[in-house]
Amino acid sequence: MEQVKNYKCPCCSAALIFKGSTQKLHCDSCGNDYEPETLAQIDEADSAAQSQSKYQWDNYTPREFVMEDSPFAVYACPSCGAEITADASLGATVCPYCDNTTILKDKFEGVYMPDYVIPFRVEKNSAMGILREAAKKKLLIPKMFKSESKLKEIKGVYVPFWMFDCKADADITYNAQRVTAWSDSKYNYTKTDFFRLFRSGTADFANIPVDASTKADDEYMDALEPFNYNDAVKFDPAYLSGYLADKYDVSVEDSIDRANRRIKSSMESMLRRDTMAYQMVQTASSSIRFDNGKVRYALLPVWMLNVAYNGQMYKFAINGQTGKTIGNYPVDNGKLFLLRAAIFTATAALSVGIFYILRKWGLL
Ligand SMILES: [Zn+2]
Ligand SMILES: [Zn+2]
Questions:
Q1: Residues with Cβ within 5 Å of ion ligand 2?
Q2: In this model, does residue 354 exceed pLDDT 50?
Q3: How many Å apart are CA 88 and CA 108, to the nearest integer?
Q4: How confident is the model at residue 358 (pLDDT cuts 50, 70, 90)?
Q5: 224: how many CB neighbours lie within 10 A of its CB?
Q6: Residue 155 Cα to ligand 2 middle (Å)
Q7: Angle separating helix axes 333-345 and 348-360, nearest 10 degrees
Q8: How many CA atoms lie within 13 A of 349 on its CB side?
Q9: Where are the domains of the chain?
């Protein structure tokens, strides 16, 4: 005896039929069979994955940095607008972001107290050494990128970051397939199985950094990660001595979106890794939720060097804790021309060989 139920197949949406013989709901369209209990579980999973995502952060109000007889002053760069905190006795210096030479002393106000700081571990000599070695490996860069007096201009800057902590839950459903093919002497066969996958998980996020300065290039700052937060210490003004500190100019509210996007994509890729056994995996619905996310304000150490060449600014940044480096060198067109001319006087076959070797070594 067969009885029609008002259930839809979770895999292909066709109507299901309850079969008395198997005590299961059967789909004629895709061939799947379901225990009634399984359908109830799928329903539950679906409604979890369809529930609205919720990213809820606690309020955070930064504390004003108040210091009697502050040894610090704020310097403003009239060219790029950066506001830098540094020793009041700081001599002539250039802006770490745009290399402008006339940064001006301003009143010490509107500076906020970081909750913690990762102190510099890479010292100035080592930072210069990193760039010196990197430049040595490049054949075709202009001389000034190797000049000691230029390398000396490197500056240690504490870059302000908003740090986000939360414990998030995720429920995601996927439609997926598995295709098997085989053949016998007469025919080739292809069988496609359809699946509805359900994955859920919880993850603790600690110290998701979002750079809080519009002057610090987001891409550069992301590329300098990771920082090791075991070294983070409670903020003390002593850490600023000898360094510059940037003042944040992106509010918590304006940074939350980036934090949310990072949480979402981490959760999604974490759960996605568990669907590798299937093909054509497509997200059907996804829900990510957390309450009471914590926000804190931190300063992270970055060495910065700017080199102006041919009307363009080449920026180099080094993670002041780990030494990880980012930056691109230009090619000196004069040198490139000479090299090409030399190569074209050689035989065609040989020039191809030379170019191949240079490329392989990453020198061109
Ligand atoms: Zn079906
Ligand atoms: Zn500037």
A1: 77, 79-80, 82, 95, 97-98, 100
A2: no
A3: 9
A4: very low
A5: 25
A6: 13
A7: 140
A8: 0
A9: 52-330, 331-364
Provide the pLDDT for residue 275: 92
**How far, in Å, from the CA of 258 to the mean position of ligand 2?**
25
Rounded CA-CA distance 128/116 in Å is 26
Amino acid at 257: D
Distance 354 CA to ligand 2 centre (A): 42
Q: Give the number of C-alpha atoms closer than 13 A to the C-alpha of residue 166, restricted to the C-beta side.
A: 27
Write down the pLDDT at residue 280: 93
Give yes or no for residue 4 having a pLDDT over 50: no
Which secondary-structure segment (H or E) carries 203? strand 188-211
Stated pTM of the model: 0.78
Calculate how far, in angstroms, residue 51's C-alpha sits from the geometric centre of ligand 1.
24
- 156 CA from centroid of ligand 2 (Å): 15
Ligand in closest contact with the CA of 95:
2
Give per-residue pLDDT as tens, 109-153.
778 889 999 999 999 999 999 999 999 988 788 888 999 999 999
Ligand 1 geometric centre to CA of 180 (Å): 18
